[in-house]
Amino acid sequence: QVQLVESGGGLVQAGGSLRLSCAASGRTFKDYPMGWFRQAPGKEREFVAGISWSGSMTYYADSVKGRFAISRDNAKGTVYLQMNSLKPEDTAVYYCAGHSIKYGATPKTDKEYAYWGQGTQVTVSS
Prior knowledge:
Layout: E1 3-7, E2 10-13, E3 18-25, E4 34-39, E5 46-51, E6 58-60, E7 68-73, E8 78-83, E9 92-99, E10 113-116, E11 120-125
Parallel strand pairs: 2-11
Antiparallel strand pairs: 1-3, 3-8, 4-5, 4-9, 5-6, 7-8, 9-10, 9-11
């Protein structure tokens, strides 16, 4: 059974930084693309960032490009989201997601991800 556990959320002032972590277990982590999504109150869940199974390719939503960085440590079975220059509009619950296709392309829609963490709250104050 695949499990994804996020950590690292919290309250930060605008302009600050946070690093989210997602620890995966239950399958060979290094063979699958991973992603981060977020959902703000009253809004739909949206794609934030994705990383290929090898870590060589990364993808970002336009709203976070240049501020956020996704990475993975396959030896530790962990994917990270470094968030810099945070804005109040980044406030949301952030979810880690795992794709179900080994060596597959990196999805950018939530429907293509089979596994989800419980989410971690990020609040950015102005």
